[in-house]
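Data availability (excerpt). The following record was deposited with the supplementary files.
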Amino acid sequence: MSLFSPWTSQEGVTMHPDLRRIIAVEAHRRRTGRCPATVHALGTGESFAVEASPDGFHDLASGLRVRSEPAGIVLEDGSTVELRLDGDVFFSGRDAVSGEYFTGRAGGGASVTLYPTVGTDYFQYAMAGSRGEFYARAADAGA
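Predicted structure:
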């Protein structure tokens, strides 16, 4: 069973929590030029490991490999998420599977906030490097 199979063309279905985290990682990666090693979900207190790859990253908690494309991201099952950076801080996009639009903020610091258009919730994530350090730009991480 696919991780995203509950989304099959149902009205009112929202984005899967793993996909929200994956979008936050990609937005951070595009803003900073670095892939985090650990993602902390600030609302739940959970931490998730991420492995960088030459063309994207591997989200270890979900098992999904994510490939970065200019127009967004592609998951290994072929599903796509549109993602574009807007100005210095904002980003926006659309999950093609659920049809959900989202916006967010990732200004190159250590945190990312995602705002789904369904409901009133928002989701915050803190990004950390391989030694647990929180960093903003590649220069701050010793790259």
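Summary of structural features: The chain is about 10% helix and 40% strand.
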